[in-house]
Design brief:
Nucleotidyltransferase, domain 5; 5-stranded mixed sheet; globular; disordered N terminus
Length: about 220
């Protein structure tokens, strides 16, 4: 007799007003038409283990799959930041050695000053993590610089238990499935692979067709 298989879900409590309010705000943001002066951008991050091969793998040959030894060496954990703009089919990936307030603050500055430097305002959707707070900017930069960066954004947070509402999480899953779904032994290789994936997907202007609405949620 086969045992029951239970799939894990993050289920919010019933009658959870804060969850519903924040969810509906995020969904309303996704309904907005494209605005070049205030684009809707999503940001998410995820850890990725750095795993080094101990023995040389056997390459794929006609009629034979590639083979990897079951032994490997753990070489730490990298962090993957992914920022995406779904209405234009653009995304930007940054691989860092750590997942701290400092790393997040520096990534936010890259969004502001590199990828969207000519945009008056950026509407940024992201998870409500402890590191994703404006105060982190003040811990990393001088107050004047921190305020300048902060003023470039309107932050919209997904509700607790509602990270699945962040479309950057979908992009991260695509990145992990298409590009980083194997052993990678050093962070430089991971950066190069992620950049190649980013450029390929941007050239295709690949987009996510989000159809979940407030009516569906209700």
């Amino acid at each position: 007799m086969q045992p029951w298989k239970v799939k894990g879900w993050v289920i919010p409590p019933l009658k959870y007003g804060d969850f519903v309010a924040n969810m509906e705000r995020v969904l309303d943001v996704y309904k907005r038409p494209y605005n070049k002066d205030c684009p809707v951008v999503c940001m998410d991050e995820s850890p990725k283990q750095i795993i080094k091969e101990i023995r040389t793998a056997i390459e794929m040959m006609p009629g034979h799959a590639a083979k990897e030894d079951f032994e490997y060496e753990r070489c730490g954990v990298a962090n993957i930041f992914l920022t995406s703009e779904q209405l234009t089919g653009k995304r930007y990936v940054e691989v860092t050695e750590q997942k701290t307030k400092v790393d997040w603050a520096k990534h936010i500055k890259r969004i502001s000053d590199e990828w969207y430097k000519d945009v008056p305002k950026i509407l940024l959707v992201m998870d409500n993590l402890a590191t994703h707070k404006p105060g982190a900017l003040y811990e990393v930069f001088e107050p004047k610089e921190a305020k300048r960066i902060w003023d470039r954004f309107d932050f919209v947070y997904t509700p607790k238990h509602g990270s699945w509402l962040n479309m950057a999480e979908i992009e991260l899953n695509v990145l992990m499935g298409q590009c980083l779904n194997r052993r990678i032994g050093d962070i430089e290789t991971m950066k190069n692979e992620a950049e190649a994936w980013q450029n390929h997907r941007n050239n295709k202007e690949a987009k996510i067709n989000c159809q979940f609405t407030c009516d569906d949620a209700r």
